[in-house]
Amino acid sequence: MTPKLNEGIRLALKKEDCDFLQCGTIREARDWLSQKEVDLVLLDLNLPDGDGMDFLTEIRNGRDIPIIIITANNMETDIVMGLELGANDYITKPLV
Description:
The protein is an alpha/beta fold.
């Protein structure tokens, strides 16, 4: 996600008294998920170090964390695949 989108999400969640952690890579997210308990994952599929769908599958393996995909990938096949792999929702950018 772009820095501006991340900042907008962070500000919205702050109003709801939620903490927001931004990870720019799968590796960084994997490290945080192994150390911290999280309540929700907002996942962009376009990541610099791997495939977001593969990471979705990895997160889903043994965890029941709600996952919402937020991505520019708006192909119907991507949406169906994301939901079939276990995403709770699939939102395409730009957000309106």
